[in-house]
Structure formats: C-alpha cells, structure tokens
Design goal:
Layout lengths: L5 E7 L2 E7 L4 E3 L4 E4 L13 E3 L6 E3 L4 E5 L8 E8 L8 E7 L6 E3 L5 E4 L10 E10 L5 E13 L7 E2 L3 E7 L7 E4 L2 E2 L13 E6 L4 E3 L5 E4 L11 E9 L9 E11 L7 E2 L3 E7 L7 E8 L9 E5 L2 H6 E5 L5 E6 L10 E10 L4 H4 L7 E11 L6 E2 L4 E6 L7 E4 L2 E2 L8 E5 L9 E3 L5 E4 L10 E10 L6 E11 L7 E2 L5 E4 L7 E8 L11 E3 L7 E5 L4 E6 L11 E9 L7 E13 L5 E3 L2 H8 L2 H28 L35 H4 L31 H16 L49 H15 L1
Parallel strand pairs: 7-13, 15-22, 24-30, 32-39, 41-47
Antiparallel strand pairs: 1-2, 3-6, 4-5, 4-8, 8-11, 9-12, 10-11, 12-13, 14-17, 16-20, 18-21, 19-20, 21-22, 23-25, 25-28, 26-29, 27-28, 29-30, 31-34, 33-37, 35-38, 36-37, 38-39, 40-42, 42-45, 43-46, 44-45, 46-47, 47-48
Protein name: Cadherin-6
Keywords: Calcium, Cell adhesion, Cell junction, Cell membrane, Cleavage on pair of basic residues, Glycoprotein, Membrane, Metal-binding, Repeat, Signal, Transmembrane, Transmembrane helix
Pfam family, one: CADH_Y-type_LIR
C-alpha cells in the first residue's frame, strides 16, 4: 500500500517546460514495476530511468497516466516516445510486451522484447492532440499474462507552428463623418490553431500597420476606432486600414497574419447649400401660360443623398405675386414658373430674391461656427413682347332682350381691343356654328348685336353664341368670347286647360252637383306668378262655374235630370283669362257626356247604341233579321249562277261552222316558260302528240293512224329530265290528288319543227315556205290553207 510521486523538471533553451511524471508501484507476489519516460526536446535531454519498488508488499502491479510527445518532429529516424518495463522482465527474453489501441502499427510501434515505443510519422497536434493505447506483458513460452492490460495516453505537445488567420481578407465598414475620437468602427478578430491552454503560441496581439493617424486598433480584441476628430467626408471619403495579428503575445519570433479594412465615411448634413452664381438672368414671352416654366436655377451641396436635398423659395413680394418656384427632386434645381398672366405693356422686368435651404437639417451642425445653412441669389426676369390677340372687356357677356322684338332690334354691344402698343383695329363676327338659325347679327366695326328674326321665349329661353374678335392687320390673332342672350318673357300666350278632361254627368244628377274640377296652364312666366280667371256664359241653363281663386274652378250642374235620348253630349265653352299685361284669354271647350249611373252616382254606361237597341220593339228586330236572311240567299244564288257559267262549252258545236266560229280565251298564259298551266310544246310540234288522241269534231281519216317515232327516245338527257320531273310531282305534298298529263316538247335541233325563232333565221318573211304546214295534221289544216293560199296569190 505504498504510493510514491516523483516530479522531474527540465529547462532547455530558455523555454520553461514542465514535465510531470507520477509512478505508482504496487507489489504482488514479489513482482516489481519499473517505468522509464524519455522526453526529447533535443537528443541531449534524457530523463534517467526511475524504479518503483516495495519489497514489503505481497502484491505487485503497474500503472501510469500518459506519455508526452512533441509535434512536427523533423528527424530522419522514428521518434522515440518512451519505454515500458516490468520487474517481471529479468532480461532472459521470456517476457513479451504487447501494445494495442489507436494508431498502433501505423503510427506507433513497440519493441516486444525491450518495451521501447516509437512514432513512425510526424504528428500534428492540430489534427489530433491525444492518443489512447493499451499495454500488457505476457510470457513468451506459456503466453501467460504477467501484467494485466492497462490503458495509457500519449499526449502531443504543441509548438508554435500556426500563424493567426482572419476570417476575411477584406472587410468593409463605415463610420459617420465628423465623429468623435474613439468612435468604434468595426471589430476584426483572428484565430490561431495552436493550443491556447499551453504557452503563448495562441496568444494574439493586434496592431495597425496602415491607416494611421486616422484610426487605431485595440491590441487585445481588434476593435478599430477613430483617432482624429472632425474627419470630413467631403475632404476624404475612403480609407484603407491594414491590421496585423501576432501570436506569442507579440514577442519576437511569433507568427503573424494581416487583413485589410476598407472604411468609408458616411455623409452627414454638415455642408450648407451654396449658389455658385448669386445673380441669374431669365427671359420669357408675355404669352407664357400660367404654370409654364421659364427657367431653372441651381445651388450646390457637397453632401449626398437625403442630406443634399434642397428647397427653394421666393422671399420678395414682387416675385411672389407673379412667379412661383418648386424643387426638382431629380436634379435638385429650382424651377421658376409663371403664377399670373404676364403683360409686357404693364411691366417689362421683374427682380426678386430666391433663398435655398436643406430640406432636412441636422441640429448638431446648425449652430456650428460655419456659415448659416442657407443661401440666396437675385433673379432678374425680362418680359418679351409678342403680338397678342384682342382682349374683350368682359368674359362672358350676359345680355337680356324681350321676346317678340322685331327683326333688326338692338340686343347688346361687345367690345374688344388690341392689348399691344400698336393698338390695331379689331373687327367682329359671329361664329355661325353657334347660331345655326341665324337669329342674330353683329356690326363688324362697333360690335353691336341685333336680331335677324323675332325671338320666342317659349321656344328657347337662352341663346348662346360666340363672338370672334380679329385683328385687321393680322387675321391670325383672334379671340372668342361667349355671349349668353336671355329672352325675357312677354305676356303673349293665353292660358288653356292643363289637360284633357273626360267629363260626364249622370242622368239622375241633382242641381248644384260638382261634375268636374278644372285647372289651367300658361307658357308665359309673369314676375308675380299666374292668376287665372274662369267664366262661362251666364245664360247657360245646364251648367255653372265657380272660381276657386287658386287657378282652379268647379263645374256644377244648374238643373237636375239629364236624358241621353234628348242630348247625350254637351259642349261647354270656358273662358280662361290671366292677370298679366296685356291680358290674354282663351276659350277652351269642355265636353260633358250624359251617362247612366247607379244610385250612388257611379257611371254605368255612356253608350248611345245601347240606348237605341233598348228602344226597338220585338217586331222591328224580327223584320231586320228577315231582311238579312233574304240578302244572304240572294248572294248565294248569284254565286251559284256565276259558277255554272264558268263551265266550258265544246270547242266547236257544229261540224258545219268550223270555219265560222271564233274561240275567245279570256285567260292569259305564262309564255313559253309556263309549263304548269298550258302545254305550248304541243302547238310547236304537233307530231309528238300521242296519235291515239283523235279530234272529236271530225271523223278520222284512217283507222290506224301513222305513228312517228319520237326523237326524244334516243335522247338520254331529256329522258332523265322527264323522270326527275315525274319524281318531283309524285313527291310534292302540295300537288293535286288527281292524275294529270304533261307533254314535254323542245324546239331546236331535236324537234321536228326545229327552231321557230326569228333570231336565227337568215331570210325574210317572203322567202318562207309554208308547205310543211300541210304535214302537221288536221289541227293545222286551216292554218296551212291560210298561208299556202297567201303564197299562191302572191306568186300570181
């Protein structure tokens, strides 16, 4: 149970390095543990072997904490780590040392006979700082464990092999101009990969290499601060500051790293606006419209952005009345505009002062020793003369005229003048687009307006015309002015009924009963309002009128009892008068119908026909009915006779008067194109008729007449046409239900008669041969005799 601790101190090359070794020796069965640690800073430094032995203990064993090894070994041989030794090893070669754990075989090797441990590669503490291994001792012959498996560490000692590094090569920062000394700008920090807990390898010190005397840096934390007061952005805006971080607490031999910080002075409103010129000269035409820009002025401000925004103002009363100035936010210029209409003849020059200030002021600089934060300049505006159009004395004109004035009457006068110094003469005219009815005329010299026609207020109360004034010397200079002519009322219209009244009176009405309330209207407009008086003839025995004194009147019955049989309608003339001057009156007729009413006075019937039917007797009604029936029978009989007369009689009644009968047809045919009602083709080519159809008025000359072959038989197109027409007739729902016969014949090259048209004939009527008519059959015998006989007589 004996514990011993040994501490070894080694001082090499002015470096304070402490190496601590602790050994615990436990005795068990007469065995003893020895541990040797070799620490190499240089080959000359070797710690002696240390033995731990306690012969009083019955149990023995070993235990150790860790080995130490320097990183970045530069020797050519394997780096010696340490030695494992057990008191069970008597040097006879029967003991075997076994090493297991991280990196064994690749990084670490052990001599199984001696227990020496070597590192085969250069180790970097920044990659790995500690390795954990296991060691035990066994008998080579029996493979019996002599020392139990024990864990130990190999710790890599740091050396200063890494320089400080900043996270960025270039930093950007800004600080307001005119800041106080010591104002923080930015903090830059570097990192060192060396061990911060051991020695000074990772202890950094910051310093400024470039940027003095404007800035400084805190050596401990890398904070950059301003070092000079009143740093002006307008003088210098950008600064490049180089910061260095050095390890080993800044001592000689330490490693270092640098970075660059770009510092910009941000703008503050510390510069007032200033005019480069304190006098501005502008000119404009007197015809410049109100609101038109006549020029720009500009002040300069060394500040930028929001701090450079300026506002302009006119401080003189002379300029404030005629001009205004606004700030252009894009160019920061002052735009001078016309506030009132300029007149060269009244004033030709204007001079006023313009003041400029910053829109946003910083109170910190308003009371600085610098000049005030505003400036002023004098502006002179010259007005140039132009040839101006005439100017009317008023705009617009309102003139009143009474209606019913005669043509040529005076209405009013308009006046215009040339505002220029020349004062040229002016002529007047009316724009006829505003006086389409040509009601007015104007004197071109003095501007007197007169009427061309009479005016009627009831047609139009106002007339709006435009009068044009034109300079005689320069007709392009014109001015228009509206003239509103109000037509004043004259009592020239009589009052009349306000509406059409449908008035009735009951047959059983009592005397003095109200049958209608009437009112009147007047298109005139008297100043004191309308006042109408209603009256009727006092000799009227049927009705009377009562004036209500409110422009209405009541119509009352003067007697009781009216009869529709005596008179069903009464025409009541009502005289209506106004009270204006001159008094106008009119007579309106009120139509009063006599109607049958019930006991309550509700109208039932005003129809006079009903009254007549009610007065006829039964016998009269029967007589009227019989007369109507007789008339109907006569009409039916007449219609039947007409129908019987329309039946056709035989074409030829007697054989003897064949030549003496003239058949007259009252029906007009449709021409050659009419194929629905008549078959003209039969007249053109009788030989194509059905030979079985014999004449009824003569005896056939042969029993079996000669049948000609129809030329249509071989004509396929005609056959298809006939079949098509047959199909149309059969499928036509509007066709008559009876059978009909349609004969089709065509003139031309396919017809026996060929073409009968005179358009293709090359001969005159005298050259024609009519012998072929005798071959057309009996129907054309009479025609053949007429033409053949005519030719024979001509030849004779």
């Amino acid at each position: 149970d004996c514990l011993k601790s040994i501490s070894c101190l080694c001082y090499l090359s002015n470096l304070s390095m402490f190496f601590f070794f602790t050994g615990i020796n436990k005795g068990s069965k007469g065995r003893r543990l020895q541990c040797l640690i070799w620490l190499h800073f240089i080959p000359a430094c070797i710690l002696p072997e240390v033995h731990y032995h306690n012969s009083l203990r019955s149990k023995r064993g070993w235990m150790w904490n860790q080995f130490f090894l320097l990183e970045e070994y530069t020797g050519n041989d394997n780096q010696y780590v340490g030695k494992l030794h057990s008191n069970m090893d008597r040097g006879d070669g029967n003991v075997k040392y076994i090493l297991t754990g991280e990196g064994v075989g690749s990084l670490f090797l052990i001599d199984e006979n001696s227990g020496d441990i070597h590192a085969t590669k250069r180790l970097d503490r920044e990659e790995r700082a500690i390795y954990t291994l296991h060691a035990k001792v066994v008998d080579k012959r029996t493979n019996e464990t002599l020392e139990a498996d024990t864990e130990f560490n190999i710790k890599i000692h740091d050396i200063n092999d890494n320089e400080p590094k900043f996270s960025k090569d270039l930093y950007f920062a800004s600080v307001p101009e005119m800041s106080d000394v010591g104002t923080s700008v930015i903090q830059v920090t570097a990192t060192d990969a060396d061990d911060q807990t051991y020695g000074n390898s990772a202890k950094l010190v910051y310093s400024i290499l470039q940027g003095q005397p404007y800035f400084s840096v805190d050596s401990d934390n890398g904070t950059i601060r301003t070092a000079l007061p009143n740093m002006d952005r307008e003088t210098k805006e950008n600064y490049q500051v180089v910061i260095q971080a050095k390890d080993m607490a800044g001592q000689m031999g330490g490693l270092s790293g640098t970075t660059t910080v770009s510092i910009t002075l941000s703008d503050e409103n510390d510069s007032p606006p200033r005019f480069a010129n304190h006098t501005f000269r502008l000119s404009t035409l007197e015809s410049a419209e109100v609101g038109a820009a006549i020029g720009r002025i500009k002040a300069n401000d060394a500040d930028v952005g929001r701090n450079a925004e300026m506002q302009y103002s006119i401080v003189d009363r002379d300029g404030q009345d005629m001009f205004t100035i606004i700030s252009d936010q894009n160019t920061q210029e002052g735009v001078i505009r016309v506030k009132k209409q300029l007149d060269y003849e009244k004033q030709r020059t204007y001079s006023f002062k313009v003041e400029v200030t910053n829109t946003y002021l910083d109170p910190r600089f308003m009371y600085s020793p610098n000049p005030p934060f505003k400036d002023d300049a004098m502006v002179r505006v010259t007005i140039e003369d132009v040839d101006e159009p005439p100017v009317f004395s008023r705009n617009p004109y309102i003139i009143e005229v009474h209606e019913d004035t005669a043509a040529g009457s005076f209405v009013g006068v308009v006046s215009a003048r040339d505002p220029d110094a020349d004062n040229n003469s002016v002529k007047y005219s009316i724009d006829r687009h505003t006086d389409l009815e040509r009601l007015f005329n104007i004197d071109s010299v003095n501007g007197t307006i007169t009427t061309l026609k009479g005016l009627d207020r009831e047609m139009s109360k106002w007339h709006n015309i435009s009068v044009v004034a034109t300079e005689i010397s320069n007709p392009r200079q014109t001015t228009r002015v509206p003239v509103f002519i109000k037509v004043l009322d004259v009592n020239d219209n009589a009052p009349e009924f306000a509406m059409y009244y449908e008035t009735f009176v009951c047959e059983n009405v009592q005397s003095g009963q109200l049958i209608q309330t009437i009112s009147a209207v007047d298109t005139d407009e008297p100043l004191v309002g309308h006042k109408f008086v209603f009256s009727i003839s006092s000799s009227n025995p049927n009705f009377t009128i009562v004036d209500n004194e409110d422009n209405t009147a009541r119509i009352l019955t003067r007697r009781a009892g009216f009869s529709r049989r005596e008179m069903n309608t009464y025409l009541l003339p009502v005289v209506i008068s106004d009270n204006d001057y001159p008094i106008q009156s009119s007579t309106s007729t009120l139509t009063v119908n006599v109607c049958a009413c019930d006991s309550r006075g509700n109208m039932q019937s005003c129809n006079t026909e009903a009254l007549l039917s009610a007065g006829l007797s039964t016998g009269a009604l029967v007589a009227i009915l019989l007369c109507v029936i007789i008339l109907l029978m006569i009409v039916v009989l007449f219609a039947a006779l007409r129908r019987q007369q329309r039946k056709k009689e035989p074409l030829i009644i007697s054989k003897e008067d064949v030549r003496d009968n003239v058949v007259s047809y009252n029906d007009e045919g449709g021409g050659e194109e009419d194929t629905q009602a008549f078959d003209i083709g039969t007249l053109r080519n009788p030989e194509v008729m059905d030979a079985n159809k014999l004449r009824r008025d003569i005896i056939p000359e042969m029993l079996f007449p000669f049948q000609r072959t129809s030329p249509i038989k071989d004509n396929a197109d005609v056959r298809e046409f006939i079949h098509g027409r047959l199909y149309e007739n059969d499928s036509d729902p509007t066709a008559p239900p009876y059978d009909s016969l349609a004969t089709y014949a065509y003139e031309g090259s396919g017809s026996l008669a060929e073409s009968l048209s005179s358009l293709e004939s090359g001969c005159v009527e005298g050259d024609q041969e009519y012998d072929y008519l005798s071959n057309w059959g009996p129907p054309f015998k009479k025609l053949a005799d007429m033409y053949i006989g005519k030719d024979t007589a001509r030849e004779t």
